[in-house]
Amino acid sequence: MQVVVLGAGLAGLSAADALERAGVAVRVLEAADRVGGRVWSVPFADVATIERGAEFVLPGATELGGLAERFGLELAPKGMTYGDREPRGAGPVTTAELLEAVDRLRAAGPQAGSATDALRSLDLRPAVAEALLARAEISCTYRGDDLDPAELTAATSHIGDFATHTVVGGNQRFAVALAAALREPVALGTPATGVRWGDDGVTVRTAGGGLDADAAVVAVPARVQADIDFDPPLPAGKDTNRLRYGHAAKLFVRLLEPAPPSATLSVPGRFWCYTQLLPDGTPHPVVGVLSGSWEALQALEVDRGPARWVGALAGLRPDLRLDPSSALLATWHDVPYVRALQVARSATVPVDEAALSRPVGPLAFAGEHTADAAWHGTMEGAVRSGRRAARELLALRG
Question: 2-38+172-243+346-397 belongs to which CATH class?
Fold first, then answer.
C-alpha cells in the first residue's frame, strides 16, 4: 500500500511514522519550508530557544513521552506553574477560590449556553468569575460568550500546582525526529491543491503535477483544508468553513536581569506572562507572554507591532527589567498555510470530532481539531490523532 500524507505537523508526521512502521510506503507533502506546523522552535536574542507555537508538555501526555524516550529527547521541567497563575487587574483572587469554582463546575455537569453563562449560573464573586473566564479565553483562544462551557475544565484550562515540561532544544525536535525517521524526506514547499479520490485510490495535485497512491491522510490545519479541491466533494461533516476559529499571539522580551519562575495573568488584558528555568536550572533570560481571542489581539494592536503589548506587560510586571528593543511577536492568523491557531469549541457551532475525523473512502483525517475533547488543541492531541488516522487506514485497506 502507498499513502500520501498531507501536512508535516505533528499529526501528519505521527500518521506517516505509524504507517511506515507497519510496512506502508509513505510520501509526506508539506506546504511550508519546515516541518512541525504549529510547533516552531527558534533561537531568540542570542540567549535562548523560544517556542513560537505549542510550548507546554502537559501532565498525562503519554504519546509525547513515548516519542521523547524513543528519540532520546530530554524533557526538562519549566519550573513555573502553568496551572497556578496569579490573577491581577480585577480584584484579589486566591487559587483556593478558583479551585472551588472549578469543582462546582464539574459537579454541575454538562451546561447549556456558553462559558460565560455557566460561570454566571454559579453566582461567583465577580473577580473569581472574571479570572476563570480570562483563563479559558486565553487558553482556548476564543471569546467566552460563545465558548463551550466544557472548556472551563479542559486540560488547557486546568488550575493547580503541577509540573509542565519542554524538550531541551525546542519542541520542534519532536517533528524533526519523526521526519528524519521516514524513508523518504518530506517534500517541503509542496502544498496540495486538489485530491481526486475513489475506490481506485487517490491522486493528489500539486503545482508540480499529480501523485497517485492507494490512500491519503489529510492532516492540514482545519482552516486550510477548505482550500483543497476534493473531487468528489467531502461530506457535509467535513466542512471546515462552518467552524469557529481561535486566534492567539505570543510575545517574547529579553530580560536585562534574571527573574525566578513566575506566572501572572492580566485579567482585563486577556494575556498571561511567565518566567521559567533553562534546562540547567538557571533562570531563562526571556519573559514569554500569550494572549488569546481575536478581540484580545485587536485590543493589543498586534498587527501594528509589539509596542502596545510591551507597555501592557511593563504595567503588569513592573518588577521585570525588560529590553523592549528585543521584543518579538509570534502570530498565526497571517501565516498563509495556517491562518488560525486552532478550531474553537464554540457553544453555537459545536465541534463534531467524530464527523471531522471519520474516514471517507481512501481518505483518513488527522489534526488537533480531530482529537478528542480531552486533548483538543494540544501537541498530545495532534500526535494521538495521527496515530488514530493510521490505524483507521490500515484497518480499512487491510
Answer: alpha beta
